[in-house]
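#onboarding

Welcome to the new folks! Below is a worked example of what a typical request in this channel looks like: someone posts a single protein sequence, and someone else replies with the predicted structure as tokens. Don't worry about understanding the tokens yet, we'll cover that in week two.

Example request:
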Amino acid sequence: MVNRKELEPDSGPLAAYGARVRRLREDRGWTQEDLAERTRYSSKHISAVETGNRPSTLKFSGALDVAFGLTGTDQSFDRECQQLRHGVLMEGFPEYVHQERKAVEIRLFEIGVVPGLLQTPQYARALADGAIARGSITEAQAVERVRYLAERQQILERERPPMLFVVMDESCIRRLVGGTEVMAAQLDALVRLAARPYTVLQVAPFAMGERRAINRPVNLATMHDRSVLSYAESQSQGHLVRESGAVSATLTLYHQLAAESLSQANTVAMIEEARKGML
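Example response:
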């Protein structure tokens, strides 16, 4: 077969998922077009999932189970997808990341922890270790979570990365994560990121009080056609929103938040002050 991509199922759960789709499809002698017809998804979608370039969804997993006769079995793709999403990533987040990779502008607001795109590997691992200690995830899931984050951060290393606007609640730089050495390195990394031409970094100070326009973490991605989608998480589930009215309202709140936050220069000064306190 021309241009057949070799799969590496050991490189991560998404790759293993895709490799199993291809194996079961080929075991039945089906082409991607055959499976597309049986699932009512495009052959392009099938190819992207098989090669690990597109995360699956519960809906697609259910369609695969019907096609392969796995519904309700221990080998169902629905069960595998549930384990992948609930073990490492929240529902809705993989699809947001898929869109984030294509965005021209990204706006983030975070409370309590440094936003994932800005985390050092050591800081990310410390957060994962905390989740292990609470029994929320396993060691293998922690490794996958940190690996997935590193893969996501690659968009910032492109020759022309997306414009990144970040507002962090002051708690993000005051909360000690991983000990003083890890936290100091994280704060140093934030100062370096603020110096990048494609990054605008701001802190929403505690003194903002009731003027803080947003009270939960928010991700906003602007696409090439200038459409905007948003992603936010509750305690147990993530929500990806494309509906223009709801997204527009969130975007307005984000602009109000940024207007009330510290300038980038004052933000860097606050981060450096927090860093000195760790010497």
